[in-house]
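Q: Please design a sequence for this.
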């Protein structure tokens, strides 16, 4: 299942656009939304808006978009799951493994090994991302929802 979000185009590049989205679709469909403070905290810190880069797709190219157009972008649900497991599970797993390797030592060594494992895990992820080893996880342009009205200047040729 794809996750689809709509937003406003704020910048255009050759291979994609930057879209300002209002983070609402995930929170609106979540069963725990009434007991979760994530949406409230995100709204306080970022005004509930996010800036996302969406790449060209077969359905819509960046060249067809203008600033302030409303577009829909999507990301595959499996991509989101895989990315979350990689980004959180990798460093946590490495930290846990290093902490367990120090289990016979004092608590300070165990905690230190855990944080070293976390740091090494995040550094490895950064290295892998820089070399394109994590795959393409960017959202893609789906469709143009609404074209922005461009102001027109009328010039009187008699003046």
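A: Design:
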């Amino acid at each position: 299942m794809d996750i689809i979000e709509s937003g406003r185009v704020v910048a255009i590049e050759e291979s994609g656009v930057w879209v300002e989205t209002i983070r609402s679709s995930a929170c609106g469909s979540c069963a725990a939304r009434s007991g979760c403070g994530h949406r409230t905290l995100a709204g306080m810190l970022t005004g509930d808006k996010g800036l996302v880069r969406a790449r060209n797709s077969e359905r819509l190219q960046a060249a067809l978009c203008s600033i302030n157009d409303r577009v829909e972008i999507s990301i595959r649900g499996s991509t989101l799951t895989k990315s979350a497991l990689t980004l959180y599970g990798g460093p946590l797993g490495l930290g846990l493994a290093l902490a367990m390797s120090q289990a016979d030592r004092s608590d300070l060594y165990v905690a230190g090994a855990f944080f070293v494992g976390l740091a090494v895990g995040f550094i490895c992820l950064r290295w892998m991302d820089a070399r394109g080893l994590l795959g393409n996880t960017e959202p893609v342009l789906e469709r143009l929802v609404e074209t922005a009205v461009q102001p027109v200047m009328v010039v009187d040729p008699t003046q």
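Q: Thanks. Anything notable?
A: The chain has a mean pLDDT of 82. The chain has one domain: 2-146.
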